[in-house]
Amino acid sequence: MAQSVDQAAQVSGQVIEDVIIQPAQHWAKVVPQGTRLRFIDLEGQQAIDFLCYNAHDPSDRYNAADTMKYAGTIFLTTGHGIYTDMGHKLFTVVEDTCGRHDTIGGCCSAESNQLRYDTPSTPNCRDTFLKGLAEHGLGKKDIVANLNFFMNVPVEQDGAMALVEGYSQPGDLIELQAEMDTLAVVSNCPQTRNPVNAFNPTPIRIILWHP
Ligand SMILES: [Zn+2]
After folding, report:
1. DSSP-assigned letters across all residues of 118-147
2. How far apart, in whole angstroms, are the C-alpha atoms of residue 121 and residue 209?
3. Which end of the chain has less neighbouring CB within 10 Å, N or C?
């Protein structure tokens, strides 16, 4: 269940970083093994696009298909691992008050917004990812199918999928425990042309801390 943002921001350990990220802004840092990365949806229904890499070898990176296969579901939650191409566990989901995150919808881009909505030059997660990746010497070739926290992409029995409004409320959080040194790259989604942010992109809070 959602809680107040103040409650959601309480940690029982040492805070390394505590930041607010606005829509279309990025956060790209190495998350050391043993630390935790907490994402708080401050106003609710806000999608957070997420990529992650083995910090010591970024060619060994998040693998969406394997992560889903190991979890046995497309909807990751508490207890599931986030894995690389080489079978390394980057993170374990250790807390999730929302219960609905996306593994298949990918990120928005200027190009897909042009194709789907006929709107040129929109702010988008792909370009935001590239800014974060550039800080670590990475680029276009390093973008793979990504995770989306608090984004809701249901799949019906007939295979139909949709991008719809999220379940998250103000104060909902998902927390990842780093199982190895991991580069995490975040884009707070600025999408306004479909319901994933309830047509109103809002800030998120990221807390990196050591238990
Ligand atoms: Zn986006």
Report:
1. ---S---HHHHHHHHHHTTT--GGG--S-E
2. 36
3. N
pTM score, two decimals? 0.97
Backbone conformation region of residue 150, classed left if phi is above 0, alpha if psi is from -120 to 50, else beta = left
Q: How far is the CA of 123 from the centre of ligand 1 (A)?
A: 8
Alpha carbon of 58 to ligand 1 centroid (Å): 22
What tokens does 163 get? Answer: 């991008």
Distance 196 CA to ligand 1 centre (A): 9
Residue 76 Cα to ligand 1 midpoint, Å, equals: 19
9-17 contacts, C-beta under 8 A, 24 or more apart: 9/40, 9/205, 9/207, 11/36, 11/38, 11/207, 11/209, 11/211, 12/211, 13/209, 13/210, 13/211, 14/209, 14/210, 15/207, 15/208, 15/209, 16/208, 16/209, 16/210, 17/206, 17/207, 17/208
Domain ranges for the chain, please list them.
24-36+45-155+162-194
CA of 106 to the centre of ligand 1 (A): 8
